[in-house]
Prior knowledge:
Layout: H1 2-17, H2 27-51, H3 56-80, H4 86-118
Amino acid sequence: MLFAGLLAAALWAVQAFSDARWLHPMVWWLLLINTLLAVGIQLLVDYGVHYRRGSFQIFYLGGSVIRLFISALVAFAFIYMGTPALETFVLNFFAIYLIFVGFEIYAVLGNLRSDSQRGLN
């Protein structure tokens, strides 16, 4: 959530203090949807780790696939509804999606590194 807040602050700063022609009007909806997806996937992975020991990989990869499919459905829904400035929308969509996925991968790798150093693997 902190990461989403920092990203929202950065988007607001770009929109407020510069020429925001590269920001689509739906960028805030994209940020909200990706934040909700991140929270949902985190809850799914936490459930898997807590109630089904040893199945972290299954829940993490399953969550990644769910995120991919829901994100694709959202993108196609926005495109189908006739979102204006389609190129800007697609660029914003992929930028936000990749930023969230990149942060998630970075966090998982950081946790795996600290767990392996403690001998938990």
